[in-house]
Design goal:
homotrimer, mainly alpha
Amino acid sequence: MNNIDNKRTASRMMRVTTALLCCIPGLGLADQAAAHVKNLPGAAAPSGMKAAAPALEHYTHDLLLGDVWQRPGLSPRDRSIVTLTVLIARDQSTELPFYLRRALDNGVKPSEISEIITHLAFYAGWANATAATNAAATVFAERGIAADQLPAAKVRHLPLDKQSEEKRAAMVEENFGKVAPGVVKYTTDALFRDLWLRPGLAPRDRSIVTVSALVAGGQVAQISFHLNRAMDSGLTEKEAGEMLTQLAFYAGWPNVFSAMAVFKEVFAQRPPAVSAR
Amino acid sequence: MNNIDNKRTASRMMRVTTALLCCIPGLGLADQAAAHVKNLPGAAAPSGMKAAAPALEHYTHDLLLGDVWQRPGLSPRDRSIVTLTVLIARDQSTELPFYLRRALDNGVKPSEISEIITHLAFYAGWANATAATNAAATVFAERGIAADQLPAAKVRHLPLDKQSEEKRAAMVEENFGKVAPGVVKYTTDALFRDLWLRPGLAPRDRSIVTVSALVAGGQVAQISFHLNRAMDSGLTEKEAGEMLTQLAFYAGWPNVFSAMAVFKEVFAQRPPAVSAR
Amino acid sequence: MNNIDNKRTASRMMRVTTALLCCIPGLGLADQAAAHVKNLPGAAAPSGMKAAAPALEHYTHDLLLGDVWQRPGLSPRDRSIVTLTVLIARDQSTELPFYLRRALDNGVKPSEISEIITHLAFYAGWANATAATNAAATVFAERGIAADQLPAAKVRHLPLDKQSEEKRAAMVEENFGKVAPGVVKYTTDALFRDLWLRPGLAPRDRSIVTVSALVAGGQVAQISFHLNRAMDSGLTEKEAGEMLTQLAFYAGWPNVFSAMAVFKEVFAQRPPAVSAR
């Protein structure tokens, strides 16, 4: 094969791969290409969905995008953070490009997306985050977002709440220091004294990501600690309740019904919020 | 690039994509094409499986397809519904085309497949259902099944059992109305007074789908309510037990061992079935 | 289209498919091809990751590959078994080729990989194992590993510990024999008196696979039985603890925190290990 052929093939491979990476499920190939170019807002008329499940198309358009996403109580930006988290935590990368574009349109910053992916390497599994970088790299390239607009590997940390962190570390050390010293060490060194202090994603938003990942993964036992942490960082009861509504659609009803009981308990045990915040 | 080249490339892209969407894991590319054309019944000799795990190939052929699927106690049609549900609930779309064809061959109607996918948007997560529409659209196209043979977005509902539904709604409202009003609202409006009343999938079958999704997702806490509902709609104890056998292979032994304890409890607490039903 | 065109297209499809199957997430297409050819050790500089999450690239290189994998307490070979298990149990096949190569480099035998995949058909779900055979077939082909180097479908079993197996079988029969006779039957016939006795993977290693799958799937309720079995087969407390460290990164922190409490309980209830083993 000569050089020209090689180039042609390379260009074809690139296009095929792009089509596969960027596809919005349910769109025919032509629609996908169009969607890719026009950066389609709203997944208007997914033709695969139309061909296999007209009722689902209707619910997607009228109920999910047309109603749930428009509800007050949780901003479109926060809904995007919840949704991206579910897709990454459940390794559903086919849907990611559409929701990454939507997230950027809703005001989630590229730097925040980059931090959400990194955060989820620890809270959902390394391969989940790795897979998500592919979709994000594609969408960032479309939008002309370069790596120097993203948080660097080494950053200046947010200040540490030393007292509460030392209490947490001591409790985990006492409980599990002899069972899994490595887990205890990295929980302190890599998570609470490094990852959580990276300034590219606000503590409240890291907590939204963490709680959403827990609900999406059915990790009921870990919700209480992180929901309290989220509310300590400013998440309101109303917002937390609306997170559950958003999660019902993206993580499925059963996960939300299991989580809802824990949310109720956490709400009940917290002191009443001081004034309106 | 001229027009002819464009067309050629488009046709190549289409073929590549088709090959990827339709592939039966373990088949080499040539076999996949053959399988696609011949609509291979039984996944006879998957060559990737042969190349990497001869024992798995043997178990697949002799134990799973040759023995488990042939057991009495649960019809091949119902086994197909259970299996499709697991694959969709766990987002394993590579295997879907093979099992969608098998489902159609076993008598699951296209309209029922369409409703299963839509049902699982709510019970397994939106992205799971969306991904499944791609595989279903491909298989429907192969079989010449057009969208007008599928249930429309708006349909005439089955009659509502008003008394029991009002009781359910009141209980959920009391429990969670203040925690997550959105979840409570959609549970009533979108699920129990809409989705569950769509006539394209019988209530018993919706319950098989729901229970299978719960087992496949490790959602032990939600099984009791839905297994009782399934049995109220006519699922027998024997069928429920055989669902567990089918689920053991497709959702893995651990999920089934966790679920089996709940099934046992539900069976014990129900009044004895009146005669044979 | 003439014959030459057909061949060209076939060769293109093959290359595209290979690129997709073998891709290391985060690598650009050119890098992927290079990685494929050079069988890249260490995922040096994944460019997609660099483009979307520079911090994740840093953590991958310095923390995960550079630190966690180098820890004493669990051999690189065993870490590879844990990691492959997580990826298969969570159906993350994109990452598999890289970790399959790493496993072979770390001394996991092809025959063991073949048995791990087969074992996980039962413990993680059939479609998970089926998907994994594709990646394994590709990597085996690269390394010139032929099917006759893999365990045959029928093999001579390891000796059965009759007394303890009969006790187990009787207990399960008593508990669940009437609930799901099929599950009980296959648990005995296909699992404990067949799969577990296949000599291609040592009982200790089968237990590492099983326990890792349970942690990765959040199957907390099943851990106790299988961790005890693992330790009865020679897994030390220290190794089990380090498994948790490895699992934290690949299955996510929440799964490990839920599992860690069970590990602690199992450690506490076992008689002290006799001398150093």
